[in-house]
Amino acid sequence: MRHTISLLVENKFGVLARIAGLFSARGYNIASLAVSETLDPTISYMTMVVEAEDEKILEQIKKQLNKLIDVITVMDFTKKEHVDRELVLVKINYSAQEKAKLEALVGKYLAKIIFHKGDTVIIEAVDEQEKIKQLLAGLEGFGVKELVRTGRIAMQY
Amino acid sequence: MIGAQILIECLKREGVEVIFGYPGGQVLPIFDKLYDADMRFILTRHEQGAAHAADGYARATGKTGVCLATSGPGATNLTTGIANAYMDSIPMVALTGQVKTHLIGNDAFQEADVTGVTRPITKHNFLVKDIQDLARTVREAFYIASTGRPGPVLIDIPSDIQQQDIEFIWPQEVKIRGYNPTYFGHAGQIKKAAKLIAQSKKPIIYAGGGIITSGAHHELRELAERAKTPVTWTLMGIGGFPATHPLALGMLGMHGTAYANHAIMESDLIIAVGARFDDRVTGRLDAFAPYAKIIHIDIDPASISKNVKVDVPIVGDAKNILGQLLQEIKKTPDTQDWFKTIDEWKKKYPLAYNYNESARIKPQYVVEQIFEVTKGEAIITTEVGQNQMWAAQWYKYLHPRSFLSSGGLGTMGFGFPAAIGAKVGCPDRQVIDIAGDGSIQMNIQELATCVCNKINVKVAILNNGYLGMVRQWQELFYKKRYSHTCIYNPDFVKLAESYGAVGIRVDKNEEVRPAIESALSIDNTVFIDFHVEPEENVFPMVPAGEAINRIIDGLA
What are the residues whose beta carbons fall under 8 Å from the beta carbon of B373, sequence distance 6 or more? Predict the structure, then answer.
């Protein structure tokens, strides 16, 4: 099962390597990762999606993260009310005949066309993972040329 | 004050009495300041020796050990010793030189990414890139190394930082927002634990290295005596409970006593204190202690419920928690029947070996005689393998910090330099390394360190001409195909003499005790080369991956 974990960490060189090293040394996989500075520039915010087969592994991951000196707090969103978002950019083949169809599809999601030249269109979407999955499935028919996406970010409410 | 001077000033304020190390290009400014400093420095003959000596010093004294090496190969040579300290939670600060800050990342001469290399084997590490951070970094390093679950901390200091000049400001306080170890147990959990203890009929205390680290041996003994509960211990827990005590069951696990293993398997309550349910202790995990509820006391929350499911976890310092628990225990269990069963196991499966006066020397006999002569008052260090297990089984440890052994990492070559560190820290104690002929050759260069500094340690080599533990596994599990385990050895007596130490060779049983007595009375480092039975095995033994009551005793 996938879990979203957020960390407040010291904003110093080498911190990301410590966290990545902890995962690799224990054979855990990071599915996605987003890092940025917080309002306090000495602290960074990390959101990671991790694969854990069972609760025991998830607990161990959280405890090991907590042991790192540079990790200030560990939050697990799994059982908490939260919103989460990912950002995706998709480059697709475009033909004028399909314009209406494409605009209808994009209109159904939190997405928009941000670039258009000749037969290339780039679509930006910001949504939760499931919605993005649906959008991408819809776009497949147009011929996806390239796809990049950020890691998930999350916030409790 | 320049960086090198600030470093030494900080070490003094941290109470450092001795540094073990080796010079080199990128630590020249530090060594220049050491030349005038009022600080003891022990020059080893290899950086690995320095790391193990700092580790041995820490284990023997409870203080933080300090080692120092240059960049690149100096630092990488420390790494085995650092990993060793990490696995056994030993407080250590490792100082390394680094190439100048503007050269970092340039593949400069003797450059290695030392904070990168040591990241998974240190509790924390630092690369000091700004002289303003140096004093605070040293303060934090000592704080992190010695508090919570202790461990090694490395500080990598570029040589230009060592030379920069600023005003020295000693930080009065240490505050690290991501690091707040828990020291006292949760009151509710302590109550639950006390209740489980009162209700149990077959309780057992399983004591680990945490007893030694936190100095909880008095509390442990009081708990055992009040709750009339037998005590077994791990390799790291040796010395935490007197081995001669009537409640003592000895070590458990792969080479533990049969009665300790049977007792833990049949118990209805395990009180685990400062131990981590390592695979060498539990054997096959799904078959381990099927009837037992588990109380697990540990300072590291990540050690709890890592391997086994725990009923009452209590996070905190062992000494504090046992103190809290002792106040809470009002009713104690009736363990009379339990001890009857245990006594039957003790009679049926005693710890034993076959002794024959006229046959070759048994290694177990040598260890027993070392115990007899020293009356259990020596500090014993060990190498790794058969020597280590015999030293654990046949010497009766009465005090904490008396058995210094590489538990987690299993590092051959640990015992001799660790003995040096222990002797430096405890000059009034006899320090004896119980070694194998293989292991002793892994850091034998430290003979020079002993002789030059008059650090008189004794090394009892159980010389069987084999890498004995591997040979034992080859005998038992690989059809006696002794692949590369029969080794050629130097003449250890001549070798010791060539360094200015003393060597004694022993071939007969009747020479064993006099040789030990004479070695202990000689005011020099002594190698005693005991030529023992070559194919003696360590028993009892539980094959790896088996339930720990599936014991081979080897006594035909």
Answer: B513, B516, B517, B520
